[in-house]
Structures are given as C-alpha cells and as structure tokens.
Amino acid sequence: MKALFPRAQDVQAILINTSGGLTGGDQIDVTACAGVGSSLTLTTQAAERAYRAQEGRARMTTDLSVEADAQINWLPQEMILFEGSALDRYLTVDLARESRFLMVEPIIFGRAAMGEKLTDVSFKDRIRIDRDGQPLYWDGLDLNGQVMQHLSRRAVAGGARAMVSLVYVAPNAEAHVDALNAMLPDTGGVSLLASDLLTLRYVAADSFELRRDLIPILERLTKDQLPTSWRL
Asked: What is the 3-state secondary structure (H, E, C) of the chain?
C-alpha cells in the first residue's frame, strides 16, 4: 500500500492499494492512531475490489485508536465483491472517553451495470468499537454462497445490491438524527443507541443510488470536509 497526504485543514491520508484489488492469500493490515487533541481522516483512492479467489481467503484488518479530545474519520470508499471472492474483514476501534469517531463502510454486491450475479461468494465482516475498554458497538455480517438469492429476500435487502453501515460517535450525535432520517429513502434509517452514538443503515438498488444519498450525509457529518477522492 501507499498513502497520499493531500493539502487539507486536518490530516488526511488516502490509502492506495497498489495491487488494484484483493484475492485469495492477500492480507492488508492498517494501524492508525489520533493523538490527544488531533484529527485524522482516512479514506481510499477509489473503490476496493475483492476478486475471485483461486485458493485461500483475502484478509483486511484495521486497528484504530483515538485518544482524548481527538477524532478519526474512517471513510473508505465502496468495497465491490466479485463472483468467487472470499474475504474476511476486521475493524477494531479503541476510543478514549472524550474522543469522536465517524465510520462508513459501503459494500457493492457485483456491478449491476455489467450484469454480474454473485452465486459463489464468502464474505465475513466484523466491526468492534470499544470505549475505555468497554464494548460500545459490535457488529457482524456473514454472507456465503448464493448472495443474490439472500439479498432478494424482503427481510434481508429486498433485492438491493448495495448497502452501507455508518457509525457516528460524538456529543452532538442526537442533533443529527431527524435531519439524517429526512435525507434517506424508505430503505434506510438512523437510530440513536446512546446520547452520543448514532448508527445508520441503508440499502440501495446500486452503487449510483447509494453514493447519491450517502455523500450529502457524509458532508453534513464531516462539516463539508469530505475528502476530494469521494467526489472524483
């Protein structure tokens, strides 16, 4: 990997996977820390791609720590799953009590414009956010085999081919709930799990719809400091 540091008000790092994608046996590990009173935004150059795995699994692990009065924005662009991909992804976040955190994780299930259908995919996703050593938000997703068939079920995604999970930890989280719900269509929603913990789920027909509705939300939560790579 490489990291590009553009000129910005706060520290931004654009992570670049020089291999162009992930396949069986690949492993990427990212570790980052925002020190006391600092602000760090981490994003990617473009969408990441999980390609067909001939053997083995790809693995991505991200470990973030946010110290007192600091903030990390974890804003990777879409993860596109291709037919035959096998990917394990882990995100672990350690927050100090007086810290702030924004996370977005968009996933695209095949490229609809290319007519791709996922019939043999294995995707394991784990998110663990702790504060002062105590669990704050833990989440997990497992999809195996006939992914399009799973997504077609009304209780799962109603045929949607794109989804996003967002977590926002900040003292003003509650103030955003009504506005963000108004910005989402019927296939999305925002919940307040604690006075300073907001979560968002949204499924869309394709990546175009997902990005169209997601970018204004990210602009609001980042105070119009969304990295330029998101708009290219």
From this structure: CEEECCCCCCEEEEEECCCCCECCCCEEEEEEEECCCCEEEEEECCCEEECECCCCCEEEEEEEEECCCCEEEEECCCEEECCCEEEEEEEEEEECCCCEEEEEEEEEECCHHHCCCCCCEEEEEEEEEEECCEEEEEEEEEEEECHHHHHHCCCCCCCCCEEEEEEEECCCHHHHHHHHHHHCCCCEEEEEEECCEEEEEEEECCHHHHHHHHHHHHHHHCCCCCCHHHHC
